[in-house]
Prior knowledge:
- The chain is an alpha/beta fold.
- Helix content is 36%, strand content 14%.
- The radius of gyration is 25 Å and the shape is globular.
Amino acid sequence: MHDHLNHQLNSQTRRHFFGRTSLGVGTFAASQILARSLSAGDASLTNDSAGGLLSQFHHYPKAKRIVYLFQSGGPSQIDLFDHKPELVEQNGMELPASVRMGQRLTGMSGNQATLPLAGSKFKFSQHGESGAWLSELLPHTAKIADQLCFVKTVYTEAINHDPAITFIQTGSQIAGRPSLGAWLDYGLGTANENLPSFCVMVTKNKGGQPLYSRLWGSGFLPANHQGVQFRAGQDPVLYLNNPPGVSRESRRNLLDHMNQLHQLELEKRLDPVIGSRIAQSEMAFRMQASVPEVADISDEPQHVLDLYGPDAKTPGTFAANCLLARRLLERDVRCVQLFHQGWDQHGGLPGAITRQCQETDQASAALVEDLRQRGMLDDTLVVWGGEFGRTAYSQGKLTANNYGRDHHPRCSTMWLAGGGIKPGMSLGATDEYSYNVVERPVHVHDLNATLLHQLGIDHQRLTFKYQGRRYRLTDVHGEVVHEII
């Protein structure tokens, strides 16, 4: 008996032993915690979605889903939302040292002999009962001003694009952390098993700062939580369709046999990556039927197409992506993120920002209005913004009709709508140059904490242990911005 026991113990590797015992102990502990939670919990907090860590929301969610319209490159708040008549009056004068206060500049304008103030050449006016100030470049956004909440004091530590966009997407300037959508899928799971819980679209044929798939990646979370990119054309998702000669039945038979092998390997190695691989292949099979259906807009009535504008029928445009985003949201996709490049206007800003607004203004407003008309805005959180703001001074030569603006890590304006956010309000204030925050600063971590809060998640409690430390989207700080809820 003793020899038999020794043989059994020696036949197990250390990975098996620790894997099985930790799994057993962890499962037992989790079951006890879950049992107490369910017995004491509120039925209204139950999370009915599949595959998420949380069986119950941390608090009652105001939003079921989120759509994030990310304007890559840093839109100029001074030319769009933050009306500064004093800056116009002082056009051409030097940025006062008392305003700059020795704050860091990028290498692109830090060596300029002068930093001439550049007032916006665009007219501003107030709109709606809220009296929100908006540039003439945003006539469609102006029409829905009373449905929006403008946060005018978003700030970040990053001053260059890659760390800044990585920071706002993942909570860290260093690549490798999970993105917002990946955290949501990990925590809440999916309400539609035939579509990914996290979908991404990038406007086609746009120049500007590069975008990487890691910006919607899963980082150290299991790979099945990463965003799935939808593209323009006959194949919205790459490598999804069967090659010529392979039928759906053949694909199903192949997956069944492959999953059997994966399952055997999973039992041997206890490697969660194998489980993710099985889940992803099964999702891909289901998407072969669901993706063509959701991407086909032939059933959209003409008045809806007119709402989004003439580009709505051109796949890959921002307008077409906004329409597709609404179709995904109404099929209970948890998180949809749209990226639109080209807002990095170091020179030639007046002409460039005019084109950007022509491409995005109508569709952004249409998405909000479309959701409202369908009764979905109340539980859909809409977010619009970029990675940082722009400087009050001109980068390069300032002329009567032309100027550029460098990166500015403070005073960025973002707007939110729906999902339990207060409509018709503006939060925070900047100085007369839109250079420093003078009232209610909102850090990137505060913003992300608020987004999670609206979806029923306490940002401090949704964590993942990796390399000996527990990580979260908001790193080690961040507070919910209760004033806008």
